[in-house]
Automatic annotation (TrEMBL):
Residue span, FAS1 domain: 41-174
Pfam families found in the cross-reference section: Fasciclin (PF02469)
Domain of life from the UniProt record: Bacteria
Protein name per its UniProtKB record: Immunogenic protein MPT70
InterPro entries: Adhesion/Biosynth-related (IPR050904), FAS1_dom_sf (IPR036378), FAS1_domain (IPR000782)
Annotated keywords: Signal
Alphabetical list of SUPFAM superfamilies matching this protein: FAS1 domain (SSF82153)
Length: 185
């Protein structure tokens, strides 16, 4: 779990800030970069690299030494991955601040990961529930008109399969709630 935490620290550094913003509902389209779900040959990092829209996240992961954890054969993780555009939405200086505060960065990145391979069909069944992330804090799951929201972040692509987990692409960096509360607001 420590390696996984390190990996998500990188994601936070890439701009994981801000709760989701509601947008016009759009269907969540499952995307598989490797055509055979169970036979996906690329790990989470390789899959994100192939997608080309997670450069900020991957760069942060490498700098934090977390890429190895996301590449682990036995990782079995679900990553709610903010795109480069999601990181660009962060307030000026936010990413730099996270990179300087490794504990805050770690907390933000772990808030984007859950243990196990949770596919879109499973996430839809969690409507109205709070799901615990690797940070120990919970994220709210809401489904409306086929659109999955995590707090206020929209899942824009679901079920991007990797050999060691699954990626759900989100449009906004998730920020964990402050304090000891485990539930997102």
């Amino acid at each position: 779990m420590r390696s996984f935490a390190k990996l998500f620290t990188v994601a936070a550094a890439a701009g994981c800030v801000g709760l989701l913003t509601a947008a016009a509902p759009a269907p969540v389209a499952p995307v598989a970069l490797d055509h055979h779900e169970e036979g996906a040959s690329k790990n989470i990092v390789e899959t994100a690299q192939a997608a080309g829209s997670f450069k900020t996240l991957l760069t942060a992961a490498k700098e934090a030494g977390l890429a190895e954890a996301l590449s682990a054969k036995d990782a079995n993780l679900t990553v709610f991955a903010p795109t480069d555009e999601a990181f660009a939405k962060l307030p000026e200086g936010a990413l730099e601040g996270l990179l300087k505060d490794k504990e805050a960065l770690k907390s933000v990145l772990l808030y984007h990961v859950v243990k196990g391979k949770v596919k879109a069909e499973d996430v839809v069944g969690l409507d109205g529930q709070k799901v615990e992330t690797l940070s120990g804090k919970k994220v709210n799951v809401k489904v409306k008109d086929g659109v999955v929201m995590l707090n206020k972040s929209k899942v824009v692509k679901a079920d991007v399969m990797a050999s060691n987990g699954v990626i759900h692409v989100i449009d906004t960096v998730l920020m964990p709630p402050k304090g000891k509360a485990k539930d997102a607001k």
